[in-house]
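Q&A log
Question type: sequence-to-structure
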Amino acid sequence: MSDDDDLFGGTGETRTRLPERDGADGYGGGRRSGRRSSSRSLVTVIGVVVLLIAAIAFANRDDSSSDDSGDTNGNKDTQAAPTAPTGEKPVSGKNGGIPAGYAKSEQGVQSATANYAVALGSADMFDQTQRHRIIDSVYTPQAATERRPGLDKVYKSEKFLNGIGLENDGTAPKGTTFVSRIIPVGTKVTKFGGNSATVEIWYSSLFGLAGEGAKNPVTESWFTNTYDMRWTGGDWKVADFKQKDGPVPVGRDQRASTADDMAKAVEEYGGFTYAR
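Response status: OK
Response body:
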């Protein structure tokens, strides 16, 4: 695996709300055959890459609430919580265009993790101005300072960009639409206490180019990221994270959509803006 791959590395009780506009995943969708296996690796890198990468994969950890059972060290059992909504209202504030102002609770940290993962896995990470906005909004101040140089290096790498089918400036070739989006399936708090938490998020990732003749068609992948969250400045922020493949569901025998249909869907269906 290359250095660029390393830099790229973006469950309990869950309720998901659909948003209004496009998001994207940075670490690819599931590539499955022949030539796609190398692309899948790249895509995977990108999917998670967008999430918090700076130079090495991070290790995200817990987020739970004082209501949950656990031992004196704050460790929680692995039994999944019901997926019924908790009834708490979503946050109303924003930081850099990203939902902010989460409660210092298990629900709050899970919500923060899901929203940050979506932002870090979006196509906006391929634009320097938007990337810096996202990094400063979701990372702790220290992590943001440490990761920004590494992320900039990766996203400016012509070798990397060309490898995933983009132009040297990170834009999609004429006639194609770049898709980088993650869709959270669920989150789980594995540890919660004081000003820190560890949260796992299971999600599906869409990554690639939609359009006739695209080098890397949009494909789907499944991952679980573990986030190390910290309560700082009155909100939850990402300190570190790590990623692993799966769980991957059995694929159905469905006919793949045309490039035009895929590009149209990406334009018409917005990504998540709030998840819990």
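Response note: The radius of gyration is 18 Å.
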